[in-house]
Amino acid sequence: MKCTACKKEALIKLPRHNSTLCQECFQKFIQKQTLLAIKRYHMFAKDEPVLLAVSGGKDSMSLWQILHLLGDQVHAIHIDLGIGDFSRNSRLVAEEFARNQNWPLTVIDVKMETGYNIPETLKLTHRPACSACGLVKRYLLNRYALANHFPVVATGHNLDDEAANLLGNILRWREDYLAHQSPILPSFHAKLAKKVKPFYTLTDDEIRTYAQFSDLPFCDEICPLSQRAKSLDYKKALALLEKQSPGTKHYFWLTFLEINERIFQSHRPAVPFLECTRCGMPTTQERCAFCNIFYPIEQKENL
Ligand code: SF4
Ligand SMILES: [Zn+2]
Ligand SMILES: [Zn+2]
């Protein structure tokens, strides 16, 4: 099997792109796909400072390395969620890599910021684990971006994450979520950073192979709180469909992006943003969901 690009021995098949690639050409392919995604959606310009959320997993570690290779102005941020060994090991990977590369990294500890780590936070709310954890991460990331003048926050969400999310949103017909599901979420308010996902065309397997070919360290542990996450079921369902009919997952997600604007975004109601009466961050209610979790007594007093 020869590499379609350079005719050396190929190591990997990419049926969707009708090619077989050697290690070096595969790495270049992933880097090029990332660059194309950034350009296609005007995610950020070369001189724009980007705040990259680095969990320590394969996706964010690969994106960190690629954005540096592409010459982007990246500042990484790791949020220590306090989920036992999983968080300790993830943080170590990110910190050690930053030290070895001499790349900037800020670590935020959820417990220091809120008084509670994520397992403790779950006792304060009825939200499922990933919903509460996601909300806390998004809030802290946005607050840090705002305070430190980063107009853009990038994350390592990939095609499998987005396809699973899409399936979940369709199964429950969450029109509002569907309208907002995109590789780029523009800033709707002066206190909201733009959110971008440069890996939206790349699969779990492609990124794992990239990280391994590039000798990147990453934490491969599964979050113990994810056991009951619906997104894992959706990923399994899509993997089954993909096995029966290769290409289904790509078609499902990438075609949705083509029709999303016509079908869902045009029906999107304009929701006016208020500012949270406690923290001042944008919200559609009187108080934001973050403050409702961590400051419920104060909320009752205000009522
Ligand atoms: S799997 Fe869920 S709980 Fe665990 S880190 Fe991810 S979002 Fe948080
Ligand atoms: Zn090659
Ligand atoms: Zn608030």
Q: What does this protein look like?
A:
Helix content is 49%, strand content 11%. Helix 3 (84-101) links the parallel strand 4 and strand 5. The protein is built from 13 helices and 10 strands. The longest helix has 19 residues, at 129-147. The mean pLDDT is 94. It has 2 domains: 27-269, HUPs (Rossmann fold, 3-Layer(aba) Sandwich); 274-303, no CATH class. The site of one zinc ion has 8 residues, from helix 1.
Topology (SSEs and partners):
Blueprint: E1 12-14, E2 19-21, H1 23-40, E3 50-53, H2 58-69, E4 74-80, H3 84-101, E5 105-109, H4 110-114, H5 118-121, H6 129-147, E6 152-154, H7 159-171, H8 175-180, E7 184-185, E8 194-196, H9 204-213, H10 230-244, H11 248-263, E9 274-275, E10 282-283, H12 289-294, H13 296-302
Parallel strand pairs: 3-4, 3-6, 4-5, 6-8
Antiparallel strand pairs: 1-2, 7-8, 9-10
Helix pairs in contact: 1-9, 2-9, 7-10, 7-11
The structure holds iron/sulfur cluster (SF4) and zinc ion (ZN) (2 copies).
Report the bound ligands by name, code or SMILES.
iron/sulfur cluster, zinc ion
Shape: globular
* Strand numbers in spatial order across the main sheet: 5-4-3-6-8-7
The figure for the number of domains is 2
- Low-pLDDT stretches are none
What share of the residues lie within helices? 40-55%
The CATH level-2 architecture of the largest domain is identified as 3-Layer(aba) Sandwich
The average pLDDT value, as a whole number, equals 94
**SSE order:** EEHEHEHEHHHEHHEEHHHEEHH
- Rg (CA only): 20 Å
How many beta-strand segments? 10
User: Per DSSP, what share of the residues sits in E-state strands of 2 or more residues?
Assistant: 5-15%
The CATH fourth-level homologous superfamily of the largest domain = HUPs
CATH class of the largest domain: Alpha Beta
Q: What is the CATH third-level topology name of the largest domain?
A: Rossmann fold
